[in-house]
Amino acid sequence: MITLYWLCDIETSDRLWVGETAWMLSRLQREGYPIDGGLVVSGQVWREFLKRFDNSTSLLADFPASSLHLDIDNPRSLQLVAQQSRQAIGQIPFSQEWLSELKKAIEGLDTPCLRVQSSLATPLTFKKPFSSLIEPQICDNSPESLELAIKQIWGQLFSAKSLFYWQRLGLGIEQLNLAVLIQPLTNAIASGTATLTPNSFEIEATYGLGESLRWGEVLPDRFTLDPRTGSLIHQELGHKIRAYRLKDNIKENALEAYVLSPGEQEQYCLNQSTLSALFPVLKRLSQDNLSGISLEWILRKSHNSQLPPLAIAQVIPAMSVPLTPPSASPEPKTSRNHQPLLKGIAAAPGRIHALTQVIEEGMLPDPSLVKQNIIVTREINPSQLSWLKNAAGVITELGGMTSHAAILARELEIPAVVGVSGATDLLRTGDSIIIDGQKGEIYRYLGQEEGIYAYQAVPPKPIVTSGFHPIATKLMVNLSQPSSLIKAMDLPVDGVGLLRSELMLLDLSSPNSVEQWLEQTPPFEIIEHLRQSIQEFTARFAPRPVFYRSFDGQSCQGVNPPSSKDCRGTAGYQIDPTLFDWELQALVQVQQQGYHNLHLILPFVRSVGEFRFCRRRVEQAGLLESDGFQLWIMAEVPSVIFELRDYVKAGVQGVAIGTNDLVPFLLGINRDHPQINDNSKPCPTALSNALKQLIEQCRELGIPCCLCGQVAIQYPYLIDQLIDWGITSISVEPEAIERTYQAIARAEQRLLLEIKRLKG
To answer: Which DSSP symbol is given to 86?
Structure first.
């Protein structure tokens, strides 16, 4: 007998078997919230189904006794296990008894189409968002179609991504209870998400069903409501080109995409009336102590009497683990004389208390060891940057403000102190310390040692954009991590001036090196991963421009680079263009999805010949066929200053000045030299003259010029001169946006004042 639960009948004692999604929706339905009815195929059914495996060679033969120990660091093995497991699930038929009970149950839903989604319960004492691991399915209201949809949900638990995720959490599949929630589905006028915070209700919305938003194919309309009155604080028109609806004949394929009319694209999909209908639901949720949650909602035509016009489709509890401890917890105590134990270069702001994890040279720690700990190491190589995503802070003996570790730490908003001599000798794993990334100081912690957790003594200062003067110079942001997108979207920027591909690839290849990932992954998968990552940025920022810098792998360019040659930048593309061609294919696919705000910057260009080689491949890929597409170069090698006119004749349409490399090459020092990291010294004359010549040449040649890198932050007074010379845009890291915005505004006001005085 199959164990089914109707949503309205779920009890607290059923929570383990119906999963978090179904349990939350059932709870809200009982309290009178607009929730579509539905039923749940319980986790007990999932376990009973798996007992039917009688193939001793199957991964699941001894389920649930097996802990499924997999070599998740071997991508080929992982992909093979995942494929075999999903095939095995699809080949085992439901019993006639199960099909009969399903048929009887879904007749009560009285709709031709069903939405089928996972509802997962785990033994974890904390909750995490699992919805991205298992995609919902849509099928017609028949037992056979529903059987297939349920198996597809179950099969996704054994995808390579899912298996990797659970193993990294230290959980075996046998510890998971996977229930399946089945609800009626009809067409929608609009759908979207809402996030409740104490200070605002943030709503995202698009036309039609929510797939276009879930798959990142549109930039939604955004609305901010006052949680007390429901008044509209702010609204922002999105970039909506396509939407989804149900087909008339859902037997073949339930969903179909359609292009929105120009009128729909140019107007908000929610008006004041619909916002007013949504607000009471959000306010009640907030009053019921559910502030902090996110939810998915759907808006239908009011004449549909079977289902509520406005319904909550999904509820996601707040998942962020606060860094601030309970108010009763003591402030971290430093030594009595307040003298730091160690000092270094203040590379990323923030002040945090946590335990240390010392990583010796050649050591490859498990990612769980660095989670919420402060990494202490000699230096962090590019292949090790993925450690930072789980760390509370970072201390290195080598490196400077422009090292990759410092750049990524600032983007991830974790404190970092670099250039700390003797750090690995004085600190031991498990030491309790305070790191101050604003001052570049490290202290011993002298407080209570029990229950150590990450303590954010100085939270990052929120960026305040109200009251800013309008500026003519474009302000852009440098990014690489999708996790930075949410905060970056709210910054007063004109787009992404530098999307760093090398840090993006390091994230995609983790825990392997980029070289291993490229060698072991089929090309079509690499291209697809790149497309998804790049499209996530272009969709979020559209119609604002996104400038993608292709891979600058330094010593690891290409798939099989000759070790005896210098493979950095576009010189490496001439030696082995494989990866560059894959990147171009990914860019073309993003263009084909309708995102024409994407542009390309070539890294570390040393000659006009290198540029011509790359431009031919860009043209062959078809990128130049899109109106408005721009092909830029990074000005990181001093020779560009003297050959810029030839570059423009060859087809360069813009220049991004990469000061993190240009400065050391210009001055004949390495990137970690104290002179580069010393904010107290004036900008070197050679650098000032080089920037002036580059910017004025760009202005004369009629092409845009963007300044990237640390120089604008290190020498803020230089911005006055940049504006004078004619810089068109400045791109900085997220944490520097506010002060750079203010510096640009002051410089432009001063310039206008001088012009007025000259005329008067």
So the answer is: H
